[in-house]
């Protein structure tokens, strides 16, 4: 199976809802029981129309109390095998409200849980119990997110969700993780423990049987690239999330009740435009509107009068499609209009240009400082955007900030109500003062004498690949100043694809599951499938980068995921929480692995 998550969702839809052979005549309605973990999985993968087409007439939470029996309906149960959800299922089976039950778990279920279900099935209404492996959210075809809210054993559940991803893709990988992160060491050891212990159940055996090389599970820590989420993006999907917000493919524009659904699976325009930069996006939307006008012109009342009955019949059958197209145009018009408004209100052309200048070293220190002061003196620039600029500046010029007192000057301006409205909060002030401490910016970088370690975060080399189309927007220069910055992920994946050892030999540790070692040996080369997981959250800009890398080669297939889909606001909130934590005084925010760390025994 290729690394196409849309194929996973369609395969599981067939298993969950489509009638099997011999059941085609059945028109009995179905009820779908879900829990808080599988509800977003269903809502992000399937539409209400798809469910109705398979006779699913009602969707309910499994922990809700039902008072009346509806024996004329069948029940499909799709839940995560947690203690709470299994307990709710047991209560339901003891007092069965439906005719029969098909039970599906989205991850591995334990023997004791199966015994509980068997004991509760006093009425013998359970037809089958099946393990499906989708303990994660599918955001795009090559972008996933792990939902970990409210879990008891965070690392164990995180590893279990990653293993469900591997099983759904039918991949048993070698594991590489950034070895300066104790969080990744724990996660990596937990994943390999899951794989090796499940070999007794044959879950991971023979998954790579038809592959000449094993896949790679690449574990990264967001703390090793705190810069990317702070940079203002200029591609469609990324801009929507940054300036409006996308929550499980839902965007709220206007009043809180107004919700728009964004899905590349059901929206052709969005599928084609989601990775376009702002200038190309507006051009494409204009062409989209012109095409709609052209199609609907033939359906005007005057044209209908001149058509014969057969032509008129063909035209009338297109009316629902015209209405769908019209609604889609209105949806994207609202989104693009709101993006345009936000760009203007927030002065993002000016803010973003300075961000790019700092991150990409396009001007010298004195010039950038002058421009920083100019922007900090403008009340029209939001406090949050000023904070992001100061964070980038402090990371880039750590030595100058110390010797020249730049941060004190900037904090003074951010605390002046005539310049910043509102003035910075205590959390924002703490973050600015401790940003370099959190991410260990002050440690020296081996080999180049750069005492502020900036290459580790901003990237130390130009990528000689044109990943971005040039914008036709008049505000963009011929060098596309607004999209100069390339996330660090590009260097990491580029090294793997080109077999360069500069990153992998010095910053990554490798774990090889027993079944992979038996099949391929200890020397692993010629990797083809790469599964990336960023602990701390991934961004839509990194998703776009992976999309472009996939499009540039047929030798590799890459998917990206994380435990959150970040924009700058959510990333800043994580950082505020970190600086407000009383444990900040211990030093660097990155946990470094030592021999005494408590992890799973890998032997």
From TrEMBL:
Organism encoding this protein:
Pichia sorbitophila (strain ATCC MYA-4447 / BCRC 22081 / CBS 7064 / NBRC 10061 / NRRL Y-12695)
Superkingdom of this entry's organism? Eukaryota
**One Pfam family, short name please?**
Sec1
Annotated gene: Piso0_000761
UniProt cross-references to InterPro entries, sorted A to Z: Sec-1-like_dom1, Sec-1-like_dom3a, Sec1-like, Sec1-like_dom2, Sec1-like_sf
Similarity comment text for this entry: Belongs to the STXBP/unc-18/SEC1 family.
Q: What is this protein called?
A: Piso0_000761 protein
One GO BP annotation is: vesicle-mediated transport
């Amino acid at each position: 199976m290729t690394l196409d998550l849309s194929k996973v969702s369609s395969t599981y839809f067939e298993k969950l809802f489509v009638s099997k052979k011999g059941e085609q005549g059945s028109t009995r309605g179905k009820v779908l029981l879900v829990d808080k973990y599988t509800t977003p999985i269903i809502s992000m993968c399937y539409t209400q129309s798809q469910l109705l087409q398979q006779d699913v007439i009602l969707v309910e939470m499994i922990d809700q109390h039902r008072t009346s029996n509806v024996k004329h309906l069948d029940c499909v149960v799709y839940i995560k095998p947690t203690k709470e959800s299994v307990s709710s299922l047991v209560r339901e089976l003891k007092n069965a409200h439906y005719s029969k039950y098909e039970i599906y778990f989205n991850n591995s279920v334990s023997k004791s849980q199966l015994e509980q279900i068997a004991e509760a099935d006093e009425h013998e209404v359970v037809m089958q119990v099946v393990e499906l492996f989708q303990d994660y959210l599918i955001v795009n075809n090559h972008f996933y997110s792990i939902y970990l809210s409210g879990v008891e054993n965070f690392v164990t559940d995180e590893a279990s969700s990653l293993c469900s991803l591997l099983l759904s893709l039918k991949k048993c990988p070698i594991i590489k993780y950034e070895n300066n992160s104790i969080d990744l060491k724990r996660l990596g050891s937990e994943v390999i423990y899951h794989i090796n212990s499940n070999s007794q159940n044959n879950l991971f055996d023979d998954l790579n049987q038809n592959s000449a090389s094993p896949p790679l599970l690449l574990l990264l820590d967001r703390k090793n690239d705190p810069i990317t989420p702070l940079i203002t993006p200029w591609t469609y999907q990324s801009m929507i999330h940054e300036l409006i917000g996308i929550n499980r493919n839902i965007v709220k524009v206007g009043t809180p009740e107004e919700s728009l659904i964004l899905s590349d699976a059901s929206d052709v325009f969005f599928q084609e435009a989601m990775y376009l930069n702002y200038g190309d996006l507006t051009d494409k939307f204009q062409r989209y509107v012109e095409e709609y006008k052209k199609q609907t012109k033939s359906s005007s009342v005057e044209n209908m009068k001149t058509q014969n009955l057969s032509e008129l019949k063909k035209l009338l059958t297109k009316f629902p499609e015209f209405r769908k197209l019209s609604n889609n145009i209105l949806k994207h018009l609202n989104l693009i209009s709101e993006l345009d408004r936000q760009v203007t209100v927030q002065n993002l052309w000016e803010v973003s240009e300075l961000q790019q200048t700092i991150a990409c070293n396009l001007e010298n220190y004195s010039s950038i400082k002058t421009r920083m002061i100019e922007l900090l003196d403008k009340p029209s620039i939001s406090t949050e955007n000023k904070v992001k600029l100061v964070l980038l500046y402090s990371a880039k010029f750590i030595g100058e900030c110390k010797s020249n007192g730049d941060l004190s000057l900037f904090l003074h301006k951010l605390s002046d109500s005539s310049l910043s409205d509102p003035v910075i909060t205590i959390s924002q002030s703490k973050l600015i003062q401790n940003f370099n401490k959190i991410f260990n910016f002050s440690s020296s970088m081996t080999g180049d004498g750069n005492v502020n370690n900036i290459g580790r975060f901003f990237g130390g080399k130009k990528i000689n690949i044109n990943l971005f189309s040039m914008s036709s927007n008049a505000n963009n220069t011929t060098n596309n100043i607004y999209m100069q910055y390339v996330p660090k992920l590009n260097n990491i994946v580029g090294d793997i694809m080109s077999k360069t050892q500069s990153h992998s030999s010095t910053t990554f540790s490798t774990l090889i599951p027993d079944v992979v070692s038996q099949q391929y040996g200890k020397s692993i080369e010629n990797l083809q499938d790469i599964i990336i997981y960023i602990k701390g959250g991934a961004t839509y800009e990194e998703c776009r980068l992976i999309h472009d890398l996939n499009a540039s080669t047929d030798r590799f297939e890459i998917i990206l995921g994380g435990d959150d889909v970040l924009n700058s606001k959510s990333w800043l909130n994580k950082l505020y929480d970190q600086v407000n934590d009383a444990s900040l005084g211990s030093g660097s925010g990155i946990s470094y692995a030592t021999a005494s760390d408590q992890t799973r025994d890998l032997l």
